Amino acid sequence: MNRDTCERLIDALLDGAIDESDFVRLEAELLVNPAARQLYYDRTGLDTLLSVEVGPASETGTDTTKETSKVVNFPRGRGSRSILGWAAAASVALFALVAAGWVGRSTVDLVSAGENVSKREPVATGFGVVASSENVEWKGGEILRQGDLVAGRHYEMASGALTLELFSGVTVRVEGESHFEMVSPMEMAVTTGRVQARVPEVAEGFRVTTPKGEVIDLGTEFSLNVTEEKADLHVIDGSIEWYPEARSGDKLFLGDGEALRWTDAGGSELDASEIRDRSLAEFEAQASEMREERLQVWKEHRDELSRDPRLIAYFTMDRE
After folding, report:
1. pTM exceeds cut of 0.70
2. How many CA atoms lie within 13 Å of 150's alpha carbon, on the beta-carbon side?
């Protein structure tokens, strides 16, 4: 997840306008990305200090207490992620309360805020979130759109590209005609199709099963192209283990830049330079450029309209 997207989701959370899918997407990012956690701390601290500075204060200080304690309203997730969210929110809230001089009398408000949050806690049912959908056509059955939760079901794409952000921290890109299933945040099954995965250190052991065998990741980025006849593997960065379908305890190790084709007859080495896989970072950079281009086109159109002499009223729709 890039910085702009992370900032947008954090701001939506602080404004109380974040939906369930974006919340679990942000929650997963905070779990695996220290830079995202630092950004969350910074923006939450700023929001709290601004609330203390400009919030209306009654003679008894009750209004100020409400403003500072609202920062604790971080929708809790499950397991370690809920601890992460509450630890971040509580640390910033405590700082703000000390600055305002209301630590002693805010304890009850803090507890009641937590109770209120638990009553409206969103419940996520899935293994990840659809981060982007590029001209995807579906064959039927289950359909995924941007922002949807990815459940443990079979999905059949006819064309296009789909990027999934799993709650384990793994990013998966599925391209073209594909038939796949998410088994868990740490495992997926691919019957046919092209899959590319970027696996952070915390998600080592991520597994992709195919009719020809299975890949176990050792902390890397790799691609896998599966058809009825073959499975092509390419390690873009890092290393993987490949277990053929009819294995007898044996495994093959592929390192940085290595490629392998596996058929019913066995394995053969591939020239990685002919595969020309791009890293997921390159795909993300390209998508960001396309968004900037669309934004620029919109700005030019907006400016043209604003100069129209027939214009009577112009609402910019800014947050202010």
Report:
1. no
2. 30
Query: Number of C-alpha atoms within 13 angstroms, CB side, residue 101?
Result: 4
What is the Cα 118 distance to its own chain's centre? 23
The region of weakest confidence among 2-11, 102-111, 168-177, 256-265 is 102-111
What is the DSSP pairing of strand 187-198 with strand 171-184?
antiparallel
CB atoms within 10 A of CB 36: 21
Q: How does pLDDT run across 3-53, given as a tens digit for each residue?
A: 888 888 899 998 888 888 788 888 888 887 888 888 888 888 888 777 776
∠ CA 105-78-13, nearest 5°, is: 60
What gap in Å lies between CA 228 and CA 226, rounded to an integer?
Answer: 7
Q: How far apart are CA 48 and CA 61, in angstroms?
A: 16
For the four alpha carbons of 16, 7, 236 and 177, in that order, the dihedral sign comes to positive
Q: Is 247 left (phi over 0), alpha (psi -120 to 50) or beta?
A: beta
A 10 A CB-CB count for 319 gives: 6
258 φ/ψ sector (left φ>0, alpha ψ -120 to 50, else beta): beta
Adjacent-strand bridge partners of 188: 182, 208
CA atoms of 89 and 232, how far apart (whole Å): 45
Q: How far apart are CA 54 and CA 110, in angstroms?
A: 20
Q: Residue type for 64, please? A: T
Question: Phi/psi zone of residue 225: left (φ > 0), alpha (ψ -120 to 50 degrees), beta?
Answer: beta
Collapsed DSSP state (helix, strand, coil) of residue 301:
helix
How buried is residue 49: exposed, middle or buried, by Cβ count under 10 Å (0-12/13-18/19+)? middle
Amino acid identity at 274: E
Query: How far is residue 50's CA from residue 92's CA, in Å, rounded to a whole number?
Result: 12
